[in-house]
Amino acid sequence: MQTEISRLLGIEYPIIQGGMAWVAEHHLAAAVSEAGGLGLIGAANAPADWVREQIREAKKLTDKPFGVNIMLMSPYADEVAKVVAEEGIKVVTTGAGNPEKYMELWKGAGMKVIPVVASVALAKRMERSGADAVVAEGCESGGHIGESTTMTLVPQVADAVKIPVIAAGGIADGRGVAAAFMLGAKGVQMGTCFVVTDEAQVHDNYKERILKAKDIDTKVTGRSTGHPIRTLRNEMTKKYMALEEQGASFEELEYLTLGGLRNAVVDGDVKNGSVMAGQIAGMVKERMSCKALIEKLVRETDALVKGTGLYE
Q: How far apart are CA 163 and CA 149, in angstroms?
């Protein structure tokens, strides 16, 4: 299961674990990389010292490549950008902003830079600025989302750029991986499936909520603020959507969700916390190790794709 992405990143399989805030820490990232994929540490809004510690802890658990996802809106983004270069990270993915000002630093350190994009225009701009690949993320994904679906975004981005494209959003099994290859992707990024793995340091309540989810259980809040977020429906989403209908201010809505993701991931408050998950949550039915999950994905994908020429 070799593609341009697996060769570019020096990994066994072109499967990347999403850099999910509060979820993607060193245990999960190292386990994914050990299993042949690319694990990511999610820097989110964390300070640079925390990111440095996470990188060093992950290195104790694996000698295989892993990366860091940097949320460029973070107040610590400048410091984290320097830390990943200093610590010899091989791959950085970026979201919520434009990474152009860090390109010289990162490329000089020999890093592969992979921005997450939600449009063709941004993909083309990232290619011009020196990105090695892009993650085309559809609105089926959990957390912050764009407008286009994976089915429509991936082929348009693949047609528009020469660098390899990684598909994200709505991928739960080998059928989704195979479909991504058919659409022109050279790899996939997955989040929700990895949340319920054994190595994910996530409260059992959060994992169980995903495992029990049905196909209609995700809701998108925040459209009125211009920052739509996909989560599993609960008391918080009901209150949020009611306030949105009443024309509540951005400040009121922000206050309602303040600390919500941490409350769900760490404390297990799945009623009032922010239980971020993709639309494929209804397809996630069992817990397993990262190794077992990746082996399952590869096995299922091989059965569908081998002999088609989509990968070697």
A: 20
Q: How far apart are CA 282 and CA 293, in angstroms?
A: 16
Separation CA 8–CA 245 (nearest Å): 47
User: Could you tell me if 278 and 261 are in contact, meaning their C-beta atoms sit under 8 angstroms apart?
Assistant: no
Show Cβ contacts of residue 245 under 8 Å, excluding neighbours closer than 6 positions: none
Residue 108 in tokens: 């000089």
Q: Is the pTM of this model over 0.85?
A: yes
Q: What is the length of the chain?
A: 312
Query: CA–CA separation, 190 vs 142, rounded Å?
Result: 10
- Report whether 113 contacts 106 (CB < 8 A): yes
Which amino acid, one-letter code, is at 76?
A: Y
For residues 284, 219, 187 and 296, what is the CA-based torsion angle, rounded to 10 degrees?
0
Question: If DSSP codes are grouped into helix, strand and coil, which group holds residue 66?
Answer: strand
Structure tokens of 1?
């299961």
84-121, pLDDT tens digit by residue?
999 999 999 998 888 989 999 999 999 999 999 999 99
With 0-12 / 13-18 / 19 or more C-beta atoms within 10 angstroms meaning exposed / middle / buried, residue 258 is exposed
| Coil, strand or helix at 295 | helix
Q: Which residue blocks in 112-183 are alpha helix, DSSP H?
A: 120-128, 150-160, 174-182
